[in-house]
Amino acid sequence: MISQQVDSKKEPLAVNAVAYAAYSTVPKFIRVVAPSNLPGGYQVEVQTDNDPPITFMTTVPMEGVKAGEVFLVPPPQGYSPPYPQIEAPVGRWKDGLCDCCNYGFCSAQLWLSFLCPEIATGQIMQRMRLTWLGGLVQSHMRVNTFKTVLAIVVCYHIFNSALDTYLVYNGDPNNNYYRGEDITAVTLVKDAVSFLFMCWSIFALCQTRRNVRKTYSIPEQTCTGCEDCLCSTFCTCCTVGQIARHTGEYEKYPSLCCTETGMPDHAPSVV
Question: Are residues 126 and 216 in the same domain?
Answer without folding.
Answer: yes
